[in-house]
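Sequence design from tokenized structure. All designs in this work follow the same two-part layout: the structure record, then the generated sequence. An example of the structure record is given first.
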């Protein structure tokens, strides 16, 4: 097994709607038995049962959940009759699926299935199920209800920005989402004058811009367990999150800005630039850097990990902290 690496990072999930935790799996037994027992067919050697729970209440989600299977072993997912499937709908809060008998999972070579979850009233979530053994592999994924977020997640909506008829932002504007603990932690974006946002079809956003930003407090377990992405980078290194946020920007006609590639901010370390938009995170005072076992300090390395609206990894922007004021990177 490869050694576990870890790095300090902040997560920026761009223009998105919105975990895996230990949980009571007693409600899975009947569903698993029903999945495995089909008379006259070869047994399915490897299967998975996933609890889909409300991030705030912990209750099973009984709304209709649309499920899409992707990733490294997405094509190996099968249904109860051993037929391949790429999507499924569930309304019981329990998702079951099998893996083709042609694939044998092990600890050293797990079966990896990327699962996208969408449901009315909930923020979309994408998680990866890694099956490491034959038999039943159990997981629990949390979804955030838009009007009932867990403790540690705060949301801000702002109409401060405006784009002209050409799509260029008329004046610089700033949007912040801060912790409700009164400790000055939070995130902010600053959009430069002249920035042009475009939708998925390449059309420029015009008129009044509505920016919605949510902040996930790294000191709140419920917030971290509800993150819609994995706490790891593209190389599989463990991320110790110093903060995370989601950002969406719409224009007066409801057009949603599409994500863009990121590049390091020119002349400003500890920030990331995304198409004319700078991103800053303020960590709680005394936040511990896992690589130094001390509070974050000038000279520490930090990575800003960016994801698109489907929670797909875009890039990692490495930075070195050159300024530290009140915990702000």
């Amino acid at each position: 097994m490869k050694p576990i690496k870890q790095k300090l990072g902040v997560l920026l999930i761009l223009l998105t709607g919105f975990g895996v935790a230990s949980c009571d799996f007693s409600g899975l037994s009947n569903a698993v038995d029903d999945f495995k027992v089909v008379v006259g067919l070869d047994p399915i050697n490897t299967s998975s049962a996933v609890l889909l729970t409300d991030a705030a209440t912990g209750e099973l989600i009984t709304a209709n959940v649309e499920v899409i299977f992707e990733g490294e072993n997405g094509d190996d997912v099968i249904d109860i009759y051993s037929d391949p499937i790429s999507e499924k709908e569930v309304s019981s809060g329990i998702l079951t699926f099998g893996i083709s008998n042609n694939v044998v999972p092990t600890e050293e070579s797990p079966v990896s299935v990327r699962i996208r979850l969408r449901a009315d009233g909930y923020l979309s979530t994408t998680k990866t199920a890694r099956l490491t053994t034959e038999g039943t592999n159990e997981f629990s994924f949390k979804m955030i209800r838009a009007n009932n977020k867990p403790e540690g997640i705060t949301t801000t909506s702002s109409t401060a920005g405006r784009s002209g008829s050409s799509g260029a932002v008329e004046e610089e504007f700033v949007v912040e989402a801060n912790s409700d603990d009164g400790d000055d932690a939070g995130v902010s974006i600053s959009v430069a004058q002249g920035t042009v946002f475009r939708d998925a079809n390449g059309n420029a956003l015009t008129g009044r811009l509505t920016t919605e930003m949510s902040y996930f407090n790294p000191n709140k377990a419920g917030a971290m367990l509800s993150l819609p992405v994995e706490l790891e980078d593209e190389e599989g290194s463990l991320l110790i999150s110093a903060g995370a946020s989601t950002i969406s920007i719409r224009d007066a006609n409801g057009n949603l800005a599409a994500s863009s590639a990121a590049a390091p901010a020119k002349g400003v370390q500890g920030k990331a630039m995304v198409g004319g938009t700078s991103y800053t995170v303020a960590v709680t005072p005394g936040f511990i850097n896992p690589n130094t076992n001390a509070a974050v300090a000038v000279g520490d390395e930090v990575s800003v990990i960016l994801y698109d609206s489907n929670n797909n990894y875009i890039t990692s922007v490495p930075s070195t902290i050159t300024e530290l004021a009140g915990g702000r990177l």
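The chain is about 5% helix and 40% strand. We note this feature because it recurs in several other targets discussed in the main text.
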